[in-house]
Design goal:
28% of the residues lie in helices and 24% in strands. By secondary structure, the chain is α/β, with parallel strands linked by helices. The protein has two domains: 134 residues, NAD(P)-binding Rossmann-like Domain (Rossmann fold), CATH 3.40.50; 185 residues, 2-Layer Sandwich (Dihydrodipicolinate Reductase, domain 2), CATH 3.30.360.10.
Length: 335
């Protein structure tokens, strides 16, 4: 990998693609060139970047000639269609879709947890599911204190997880609701304004959803421990940005709240906001645009042996998608 790689952002006009460009700029990523790619209907659009503009080019197999790193957020089918073109051009695809996450030989990477996995790629590195990312950022340092046996997580996921059009739908439905107008439902299964929907992605044969399945299998792969049992419950809530999760962890040996607090405070990418006396805890409505995973409500769970509970919040478009992808790209740069 050259010290100043050529970077392509595939799906640059979407919510995550735009955030990828912003993160590249804000982190002053050492790119020789950044290319914005999207579908034919978006070609020619201008996107702001480093005080200037990038012109969006139509994405096709020839788009990756001369590219070193391709950050993909264009959907699973597009990633699958263009995988061969990207890798044949000698580029590394860092893919934000679910297309390759559980594929044998494709690293699934959260840089705070398993950065070494990125080096084992064969041209594709997968960016995990947004809800999985923030949870494992917190679980990583705790797993070092004592092996984790079981995790039960309930998510409160923002509209941003379903894309820019879904965020617009929350805006529009909220306005129409307050104006007493009929609501238009398109991007979600039901009304999202002033509502919670216990259904993200498709239902599976066991009545769980694919989003819940992702959290189960991805956690095991990232943590490198297939013995960890995970029960996930995923809910869409009327928040624009930032997913929140209530996480219950059962360890194989005693872990005190004080030990957990110290480990989390020392871990990269984590900020503790945890002071019940001052009503201090992370809230999604106040953390949009932030990079860390925020932890609060840390306490013992007396209902199981060696149990702890905590609440965590992270911006889905940042750490849950764009930031994590750019951090993976940073791992590829020569030391």
């Amino acid at each position: 990998m050259p010290a100043q790689p050529v970077v392509a952002v595939a799906g640059a006009t979407g919510a995550v693609g735009r955030e990828m460009l912003l993160v590249l700029e804000q982190r002053d990523f050492a790119a020789k060139e950044v290319r914005a790619l999207a579908s034919s209907r978006s070609a020619g659009q201008k996107l702001p970047f480093k005080g200037g503009e990038l012109t969006v080019a139509e994405m096709g197999p020839a788009s990756f000639d001369g590219v070193d790193i391709a950050l993909f957020s264009a959907g699973a089918s597009v990633s699958q269609d263009l995988r061969e073109a990207v890798t044949s051009a000698g580029a590394v695809m860092i893919d934000n879709s679910s297309a390759f996450r559980m594929e044998e030989g494709v690293p699934l990477v959260v840089p705070e947890v398993n950065p070494e996995a990125a080096a084992a790629h064969n041209g594709v590195i997968a960016n995990p599911n947004c809800s999985t990312i923030q949870m494992v950022v917190a679980l990583g340092p705790l797993h070092q204190l004592a092996p984790i046996k079981r995790v039960v997580v309930s998510t409160y996921q923002a509209a941003s997880g379903a894309g820019a059009a879904a965020m617009d739908e929350l805006y529009n439905q909220t306005r129409d609701f307050l104006d007493g107008k009929e609501l238009t439902v398109e991007k979600f299964a039901h009304q999202i304004a002033f509502n919670c929907i216990p259904h993200i992605d498709v239902f599976l044969d066991d009545a769980s959803t694919k989003e819940e399945w992702k959290m189960v299998v991805e956690t095991k792969k990232i943590m490198g421990d297939a013995s960890i049992e995970v029960c996930a419950n995923c809910v869409r809530v009327p928040v624009l940005r930032c997913h929140a999760e209530m996480v219950n962890v059962e360890f194989s040996a005693p872990v005190s709240v004080e030990q957990a607090r110290s480990a989390l405070a020392a871990a990269p990418g984590i900020t503790l906001q945890d002071d019940p006396a001052t009503k201090t805890y992370p809230m999604p409505g106040l953390l949009a645009g932030s990079d860390d995973t925020y932890i609060g409500r840390l306490r013992q769970d007396p209902s199981v042996p060696h149990g702890l509970n905590f609440w965590c919040v992270a911006d889905q478009l940042r750490k849950g998608a764009a930031l994590n992808a750019v951090q993976i790209a940073e791992l590829l740069l020569p030391a």
